[in-house]
Structures are given as structure tokens and as C-alpha cells.
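Reading group handout, session on sequence-to-structure problems. Before we discuss, look at one worked example. The prompt was deliberately terse, the way you'd type it at a terminal:

> structure Phosphoribosyl 1,2-cyclic phosphodiesterase

The input record follows.
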Amino acid sequence: MSFEYASVASGSCGNCHYISYKNTKILVDAGLSGKKIEENLNNLDINLKNTSGILITHEHADHIKGAGILSRRYNIPIYANESTWKAMENKVGKIKENNIKIFENNRPFYIEDIQIIPFPVHHDAADPVAYTFYNGKNKMSIATDLGCVCEKIKENLYDSKLIVLEANYDVEMLKMCSYPYYLKKRVLSDKGHLSNEDAGRFCVELVKRGVQRILLAHLSKENNFPELAFETVKSVLKEKNIHVGKNLELSVLQRGKISNLYAI
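And the output record:
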């Protein structure tokens, strides 16, 4: 039996991912309204009833907006590390005590049939993480909101069958956009986001280490668009003799829209 994965939404306006294996269903982040998450999942005939957990990467609104309402509506546990929980608890409303699940970074844990490893990433939040998921045979990973990619992050992502990877902005679009200087500086920093070019260079390493499918995610609404992200990453790969469609399956996740359901 395979993992199933779908992007419920991915972008600077809201992020949510759906993963299932056997009878276990989980969300990674819930950065849209609870109603919008339900509507998007309904388009794939997925019901949130009996969802086993909501995993939080960090406390920014585009990752937690709907977490509280979904937890209360469906009695879903929320998983976060201690620093992230402290930073978000006043933003998500009252959560049942037994639905507050605190994990330690780099320590594997299970949600029913799925093994999860949370690991630190570089972003301007309390203690942000990315995740890898195992079902006994296969591994998949979700890594967004990355200011830079260090060796520890690489080691966690290598050999994944599928990776959801940030390609947040185009450098020239960011330089010319209406953002104030401090915000441009933040996005460009080691605790900001990955550019299309950064993502492309990292994809080269990932393909060399066994990754077969990459979904580009968390595109900026103002400083990127799907065709540009795809073509930039494809071009960087081609320079290294890695060809999309032959050596790698490459796709772009859409802002605000449910993706196809992927089997891993």
C-alpha cells in the first residue's frame, strides 16, 4: 500500500498538505480557513472525519489559520514542538488538553501507521521544522519556508520518493516589487525563503541522491508565478544534464487550489 499525498493549498496566502497511509490521515499545517480546507478536500472526496493529527511547521498565520477550528470541529490532535506551540497557542483558540501533542525535533514518533521525523529549518519563526514521513518502505518529505539549505536538511531529504520543496520567489521580481526594503531583506536572508534558482540548485543534489519526484511549493503571489518557477528549475537541472520527464518528475503546486492525489 502507498502513501497518498495532496496539496490542499500552497503559497504565501495559505498552506496545507494532506497525507494518508492505510487508515491514517494527517494534515501538515492548516493555513486557510477551516471551511476552505474542507471544500478543497471534498473535491477529492476526502472527509476530515477521523483525521489523526495536524502537524505544524511553524506559527505564521499562513500555516495555522484553520488549525484551531479543525481541531475543535473534528477532535483532531495538533502536533508541534514546544517553542512553536508557545508561539501559536494564543492564535488558535482553546484546544483540548489531550489534543495538544508536543514533540522533540529530530526524534522520530508515530501517528498510527506513519512514522514522522521533524527536523529544524532556517526561517524567522520560533523553532520551525520540516518533516519526513515513512511507511516502512517509502519515504516522502515536506520542506518549505527555508531561508537556506544546510547539510542536516539535505541529509533528512535525501532518498525521498517525493519531496514538496519551496520555490518562493524570483530574485528580479522581488527586487522590483512593492515590498518595503526590510521585507525584501527578510525574504532574501538565510531565515527567509528559497528562490527559484536556489530550489533548482538543490534539486540537482536531490536527484543525484535518489529523489524521483519534486513538487515546487509555497510560491509568492507577488514575486513568482508557476510557469516561471517551473522553467527556472528545469533550466538549472538541464545545465547539469538532468532532464525533466526523464530523470525527474517536476510539478508546481497551485496557490489556493487542491492538487492531484499522488501515490508514493
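Points for discussion. First: DSSP finds nine helices and 14 strands in the chain. Second: Residues 4-263 form a domain with the Metallo-beta-lactamase; Chain A fold (CATH 3.60.15.10).
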